[in-house]
């Protein structure tokens, strides 16, 4: 379309990781640390995000290294997405930028069937693969606690938060974990907040809700797959 109309193709999946200067102000990483400045643990042990373009994880990873913060970046990938597989392959020295999988992510806003150029595996310290049922159960839990509807990608992130908290607990480590509320849940009244939608897709609601509740209470969150320095 850009060629046909004399327009310009923005190509956010290629340029998201370089569209803003991650060393300077006015980026998401610096905003996080400014917001955390007065907290008991101002330097987070973990920042958890989901990969869509890959730009957010790249910015966070570069910023914490540039500022020499003792912060690690955890990427939470939804069930139908190739980023986790690519990350595992990268850590094993066999990264393939052409890696792809069939199908699309059921968690809107994150997850891709192919590796996007903005996803920089070396900027991420660890990744978790989150089943859709757990992402959506975590979404419901966060919505109930905050008394506001959040979206499925926020639920994926929160599942990653629970995994990071488990790792910190096992290591006897105290500190803060930061995550991102990616989107409002109001737009998902017809899907994620509709019981009929779960029935149509064969998603276990009760079991996933129970797993999230137990993880919030301190139990390991079963069903996740992880890789990296947790």
How would you characterize the overall build of this protein?
This protein is an alpha/beta fold and 230 residues long. The chain has a single domain, classed as Rossmann fold (3-Layer(aba) Sandwich). 40% of the residues lie in helices and 10% in strands. A five-stranded mixed sheet has the order 4-1-2-3-5, with helices on both faces. Helix 6 (132-146) crosses helix 7 and helix 6 (132-146) crosses helix 9 (205-216). The longest helix has 19 residues, at 152-170. The chain starts with a helix and ends with a strand. The mean pLDDT is 95.
Measured on Cα atoms, how large is the radius of gyration? 18 Å
Q: Distance N terminus to C terminus?
A: 44 Å
Total of domains: 1
Question: CATH architecture, please?
Answer: 3-Layer(aba) Sandwich
Bin the helical content.
25-40%
- The CATH topology is given as Rossmann fold
What letter string, H or E per element, gives the SSE order? HHHEHEHEHHEHHE
Question: What is the SS-derived class?
Answer: alpha/beta
Largest sheet: 5 strands, mixed
Strand order of the largest sheet: 4-1-2-3-5
Q: Any low-confidence stretches, pLDDT <50, length ≥5?
A: none
> What form results from the Cα inertia axes?
globular
**Per DSSP, what share of the residues sits in E-state strands of 2 or more residues?**
5-15%
| Count of DSSP-assigned helices | 9
Question: What is the oligomeric state here?
Answer: single chain
Number of strands: 5
**Could you name the CATH class?**
Alpha Beta
Q: What is the residue-mean pLDDT, rounded to a whole number?
A: 95
């Amino acid at each position: 379309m850009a060629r046909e109309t004399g327009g310009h193709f923005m190509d956010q999946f290629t340029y998201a990781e370089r569209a803003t200067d991650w060393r300077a102000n006015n980026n998401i990483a610096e905003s996080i640390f400014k917001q955390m400045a007065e907290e008991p643990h101002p330097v987070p042990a973990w920042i958890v995000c989901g990969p869509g373009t890959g730009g957010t994880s790249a910015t966070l990873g570069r910023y914490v290294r540039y500022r020499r913060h003792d912060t690690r970046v955890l990427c939470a990938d939804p069930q139908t997405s190739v980023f986790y597989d690519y990350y595992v392959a990268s850590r094993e020295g066999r990264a393939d930028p052409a890696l792809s999988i069939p199908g699309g992510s059921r968690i809107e806003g994150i997850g891709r069937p192919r590796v996007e150029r903005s996803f920089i595996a070396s900027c991420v310290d660890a990744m978790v693969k989150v089943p859709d049922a757990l992402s959506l159960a975590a979404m419901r839990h966060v919505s109930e606690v905050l008394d506001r509807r959040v979206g499925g990608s926020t639920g994926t992130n929160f599942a990653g938060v629970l995994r990071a908290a488990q790792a910190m607990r096992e290591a006897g480590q105290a500190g803060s974990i930061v995550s991102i509320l990616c989107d409002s849940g109001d737009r998902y009244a017809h899907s994620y907040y509709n019981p009929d939608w779960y029935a149509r897709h064969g998603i276990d609601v009760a079991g996933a809700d129970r797993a999230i509740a137990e993880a919030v209470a301190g139990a390991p969150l079963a069903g996740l797959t992880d890789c990296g320095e947790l």
